Hints:
Mean pLDDT: 96
Strand content: 15-25%
Low-confidence stretches: none
Radius of gyration: 21 Å
Order of helices and strands: EHHEHEHHEEHHEHEHEHEHEHEHEHEHHH
CATH class of the largest domain: Alpha Beta
Number of helices: 17
Number of strands: 13
Number of domains: 2
Amino acid sequence: MRLVVDYTPAIRQAAGIGRIVRGQVQALVRLAPDWDIRLFVAGPVTAEDRARAPLPLHATPWIRERDLVRIWHRLDMPWPRVDWFTRGPVELFHATDFVLPPCTARRRVLTVHDLAFVRYPDAAMPSLHHYLNVVVPRSVERADHIVADSHHTAQDLEELWKVPRERISVVHGAVDHRHFRPIREEGRLRAVRRRYGIGERPFILALSRLEPRKNFPRLIRAFHLARGQARIPHRLVIGGGKGWLYDEIFAVVAELGLEDEVLFPGFVAEADLPALYSAAAFFAYPSLYEGFGLPILEALACGTPVLAGDNSSLPEAGGPGALYVDATRVEAIAEGLVRLATQPQLRAHLAAQGQAHARTFTWERSARQLMRAYQRALA
């Protein structure tokens, strides 16, 4: 079978969706050696991109990704088709990042990672929000089968857009357990603290792009409240690059006088994540909505207990390894912070439960779920 996969997010996005596509495709290549799998990339690629990919890349060196997006999705024009670049007829095409580019294939599969832009309008800048609300429903309608990152996203597709359940397959994210594992070497732990300016004090780690849906203003207010209630010695470290509408985050820090207690080290390289998760006392992820919540699973795989919101797909990712709170209430988040900061037995229990839970989420399992989705699409 000739399968063409849109590998563009694996090349262009370091975290999140990029990590999911990289993990799934690498496992798929191992599990299906007899398939004719071709990887399409919108825009030019580097020699380093080609060296890291599990298969040769079929790129568009003479047209940029931005220009293809304008032609395909903003103008809704059916050319240039993906199969022009992957050479030959296509039995199955998998669009991995919300939108379906033109491709002449017998069947087309589309991954919808979440419907945050529907549930939470602030999840994207206004221009992007409008774009997604036009092109994603159109892509869903045109696709033969939909892949959702979680049962909750599948439920959203059914409830919000009336997509029949038989057109949806759930394919969970996963972690590479050779990489995401507890780090105990003191030298690596000290080095990652030094690299991100954390110091020697215990710290609570939060990690995500700075944007409204991630709920950082409430987390910071809850951290301030927890310090007053229990005098916890921890710092709060919020890693991640700037997204949009992030001014409130820094304004709350200034308002509460927490400039020395809340640190923003910026984007964290994937190579540093296991040591950073392992060095943290616990991981805080009180997001308001997620399609899956991959950082929760990564933290659990590193033996780090988690505080998470009790909403959307977060309980699917965290299972028994997280303490769940109402992410809309500062007091509830603060209570969770105090419990995890002051109860070592609770942290140890959640860490053990979480590691066992995370071990079931492998890229091989994810790829097998994806293969079943392909079979459903072709049936």
